[in-house]
Write a structure and sequence with these properties.
elongated, 7 strands, mainly beta, Alpha-Beta Plaits, about 100 residues, two-stranded antiparallel ribbon, three-stranded antiparallel sheet, about 10% helix
Length: about 100
């Protein structure tokens, strides 16, 4: 199958790469990807002592570390701005095939 492809304003071919996954082990929870995403795709979560995800801003919950998660993957537009700012290389992006 062929990959979905568009073109930029000047006609340069461009294929969007959609955020597919975030490696929880590699993510450092810095929030850079969240700041550059204007589509509401990401959400910062905490990992508690039991290894469970929780709200990192809940004062009653003790967290060991923060990680970024996919909250709304269907909202991703494939711009890869998040990947460009991720210093931990924690994200996986995929192209969509044309039907």
């Amino acid at each position: 199958m062929a990959t979905i492809q568009f073109s930029t304003r000047d006609g340069t071919p461009w294929a969007p790469q959609y955020l597919d996954a975030i490696d929880a082990e590699a993510c450092i929870g810095c929030g850079r990807c969240f700041k550059v995403c204007g589509q509401g795709v990401l959400k910062l979560m905490g990992i508690n002592d039991d290894g469970e995800m929780c709200d990192p801003f809940d004062d009653d919950e003790e967290i060991e570390r923060k990680i970024m998660t996919l909250a709304n993957p269907g909202s991703c537009i494939g711009c890869m701005a998040c990947a460009q700012v991720c210093g931990a290389n924690a994200q996986t992006h995929v192209a969509l095939d044309a039907a």
